[in-house]
Amino acid sequence: MTQKRSRRLQELDQKVETRAYEPLEAIQLLKETATAKFPESAEAHIRLGIDPKYTDQQLRTTVALPKGTGQTVRVAVIARGEKVSEASSAGAEVVGSEDLIDEIQKGRMDFDLLIATPDMMPQVAKLGRLLGPRGLMPSPKGGTVTFDITSAIAEFKAGKLEFRADRTGIVHVLFGKAAFSAEDLLANLKALQETIDRNRPSGAKGRYWRSLFISSTMGPSIEVDVATLRDMKVSEAA
After folding, report:
1. How many Cβ atoms are within 10 Å of 166's Cβ, its own excluded?
2. Which of 94, 133, 141, 153 shows the smallest number of beta carbons within 10 Å?
3. Segment-wise mean pLDDT, segments of 10 residues, the chain, 238 residues
4. pTM above 0.90?
């Protein structure tokens, strides 16, 4: 059964032409169509020419958004010994060792990001079924398995994001808030594009970027001209 689109969304859809927009023009249109009654995020949906069922075609990495995410990130840390107090001092909202692992097993999920020290990973592994589907399982590639707790917390709170391609080869990732200036959103989108290019999986064949659409949380999809975005210099997007 197809879901009926609201009149608001139908009206917004009419503002979007069926073409690939220049990056800044697309972002300005995203801002114009962010008319929900709450602060909407800016989202990117990127179809890549990869098949993630093969290990050499998987994409999982982090991006440091230069203008931040506009979100408050609640960080949990699983560590032991001195690293527990270090995590608290560095601003983690939830901190613990085996006790926190038990609480998570019982359903505690009041955090947006989970960092673990390498020595705790054998025990954290048993949380895979709970954390995996929510995208919260710590991983070295995602920068969330580390002994450098202070730096990791600071980076993620400042605008570092972990993202991955789903099993159909599409990356869904936010790149700020619709209320950001168009220039700040462009700087973040450029950083995301460069990160995806820099981390191209070794097994990716043929055309890597298939399409890039952006939208606000409740807004229509707007296609972005990928070639123009990739050709832009960082200074143009800053």
Report:
1. 10
2. 133
3. 64 81 96 91 97 94 92 94 95 96 94 96 94 90 93 93 92 96 97 96 95 94 96 71
4. no
